[in-house]
Amino acid sequence: MAQTRGPVVLAAASLQESLNAAADVWAAKGHPRPVLSFAASSALARQVVQGAPADLFFSADEEWMDFVAKAPGHAGGWLAPATRAPLLTNRLALIAPAGTLLRLTIAPRFPLAAALGANGRLAMGQVNSVPAGKYGRAALESLQVWPSVQARVAGADSVRAAMALVARGEAPLGIVYVTDAAADRKVRVVGLFPAASHPAIVYPVARLALSHHADAEGFRRFLISPEGKALFRHYGFGTS
To answer: What is the pTM (predicted TM-score) of this model?
Structure first.
């Protein structure tokens, strides 16, 4: 009997537009459309090791994929052998509400605290768990800016939640991926972080050991294929 529901994909929040487009292309090829669940990679990784029924995990950093790979509780590990692949890369951007005229050159000791104003908060993913928040903190530390703003961070549960704070005008500035900023007309990029200021941003994808969906491996292979990579590049990602 043919399966009518596609494989379940747990994916980083920053992949919403691109992965939905990939799922549409896959469905147009005659497959059941994958079921996509988006959240912070940290939250999704914890779901995986709690035994959540899913087929693929698509993380915004290697650390949370490592967490899943090394977590106890499932004989043979939580990842299907030889299915983990680094797929995408990204850049970090400083954003402001769309109507803001501010532009900053991001360099060592740049005046971020002053740009926030007297009472403004800096919207970021949670800096100890959400990948975009961890990358952002690393960048601010390497640029010697973190001490001046760490008490003013508005930590969000995902990079998209951080962007929403800026889009609504609740925070004058935020740190997100450039692909996020491109997806919301209510924000604009006011500066790009030097790639060398933080660890490389890498998105790995893997099939999960508990997966039994007939299409799971096929969809994973589609994502890492030249066709899949071209689709992600259309949305602003780099590809490995």
So the answer is: 0.94
